Structures are given as structure tokens and as C-alpha cells.
Amino acid sequence: xxxxxxxxxxxxxxxxxxxxxxxxxxxxxxxxxxxxxxxxxxxxxxxxxxxxxxxxxxxxxxxxxxxxxxxxxxxxxxxxxxxxxxxxxxxxxxxxxxxxxxxxxxxxxxxxxxxxxxxxxxxxxxxxxxxxxxxxxxxxxxxxxxxxxxxxxxxxxxxxxxxxxxxxxxxxxxxxxxxxxxxxxxxxxxxxxxxxxxxxxxxxxxxxxxxxxxxxxxxxxxxxxxxxxxxxxxxxxxxxxxxxxxxxxxxxxxxxxxxxxxxxxxxxxxxxxxxxxxxxxxxxxxxxxxxxxxxxxxxxxxxxxxxxxxxxxxxxxxxxxxxxxxxxxxxxxxxxxxxxxxx
Length: 343
Ligand code: 13P
What we know:
binds 1,3-dihydroxyacetonephosphate; 14 helices; TIM Barrel; about 350 residues
């Protein structure tokens, strides 16, 4: 493990004004996204869509520090034969790879999930490094449902797997993004989200320490502390920012170079407003860079503008560039609602 190299990559992933594009939708998820715009999920369509994003020059050059890819995409070539990985590198951005094999039912814990993919991971990581990946992602899913879910068992099984993944990544000189996502589905309030997130993060850093993961060469990708989607009372932007920063300060060691949030089903402007509030109000109280690693909150607008049609590529790229710029401003704490309509 070369910790200096890992720290350099991790630091570049959270450079000022930059964040990560999560373009690592699995085959099932990208099909769902394409279904919503009446587009068939063929290999060529997936390639065309992602090529369009990676060729959005200003967004990639100025606002996107890295891109998380799916296994298919890291091996794919653009229509002109250039490797998609090369398009990302040529824009000065860093290719990354999703390496987990999805969340599956956890035996003995009805309604809960464990993320799989550790078997054979060492070999896969070595291959991904050769294909250009310098960071990886593994997502654990923690649901909140009633008083019994999540169980302590579910959280400990998932953070144990996250730490095993992270240790293997660092051995392969790949920066692990550790992603324990507490879902925002359900009717729980923001206090319950706070408690579950705190327990999850504290358990995670315990396990990372136990398994000798060097925090200086890792990145955390958490949920924000937020009301459940079906909760009758929605917490304000300021409450989300205050409680998210509070739980992170209580749980995340300062050695970590950066924290990048998932959007998790927030609307694109909500995700931007929350990130902005944290950086605008608390930047000098946070020892890590705090940025974005959004999937839906960066891609919903370009997907809709594209609609699977070549004639819409310019409009879709403009939509992507706009969201990337808004989130870049939010990383700096310089975003405001008025900038949304200013285009
Ligand atoms: P969302 O921003 O759409 O939640 O996706 C981010 C991600 O990578 C989830 O694993």
C-alpha cells in the first residue's frame, strides 16, 4: 500500500469546487432510469448516454473530480473508439469503479440487507487498477422501518463488509469510498435519522480501525441527516445542515480527507441547497472537505433533456453542466437560489 499516493488521490477527489459524478448505475437501475424516458437500455444507448456526460467539457474539467463507473462502462469505448476511461482522464478527472455486487436479503434479519461482493474482490481490484480505476465504491444499505429496523446485527454485518472492502482497496492502491447509506424512504423524522446515522458511522469507524484501514487514504460517502420521504413534518434546509454537520463532527475522525454525500432521492435543488448550507455556515468547523457524489441529483436533468435522442445531446450537456456548476458553487458555499434560474 502506498499511503502517500492514496492520500493524493483522495485529496484530489475533494479539491475545492469539485465533486464526484456517480454514473455507476447497475444494469437494473439504469434500465429503470431509461424506462422513465422511454428509451431502451441497450449497450449502445448506455454508452451514448454516458459518453455524452463525459464529453461535457466544462463540467468535467472544472467541477467533476472523479466519475464512478459500472463494470460495463470501464471497459467500453466511445463511438469513435476512444476508451471512455480516457475521455475522463483527458478531462483531468479520475476514473473510479463500483465494486460491490448489490444489497441482498440478510439471513436471519427479515426486511434487512447485506451488501455482497467480497469473494474474488482482490483479483477484481487488481484488474480495475490496470483498467485505470484509482478509487472504488461499496454501498451498504441501512433501512429505517419501525422501532426494530435497523437491527444492530444488520449494521455490524454491513460495516464489517465495508471495512474488509476498504482494506482490500488500499492493498491494491485504490482509494475506497465507504458508503453506508441510511435510506430516506419511510415516515421517520429527522431525529430518528440522526440516531441511526450516528450509530452507523460510529460502528463503521470502529470497524475501519479494527481492520487497519488508513483513514488518510479513504473517503466517506454518507447520507445527509434528513426527514424520511413520507414524514409529515419536513425539516428545513438549515436543520438538515446543522444536524448533518453535528453527526459528522461527533463521528468522523479528522484524518479523513473528505466526505462526499449521496443525494439519495432528494430533488436536485434540495441536494444542492443542503450541501451549500453546510459549507456556507460550517466550513471553518469541519476538518474535512465536504462535497457531492451525486447520481440522481446530477443526472435527472440531463437524462430528461436527452430523452434518448441524438438531437438533444447539446441540451442535455447544458443541463448537466448547469447542475455540476450549481453543486460546485455549493461545495464552496457560494450557491443561492437565484443562480438556479440565472442558468
Ligand atoms: P444518488 O445520488 O442517486 O443517491 O446516487 C449516489 C450513489 O452512488 C448511490 O450509491
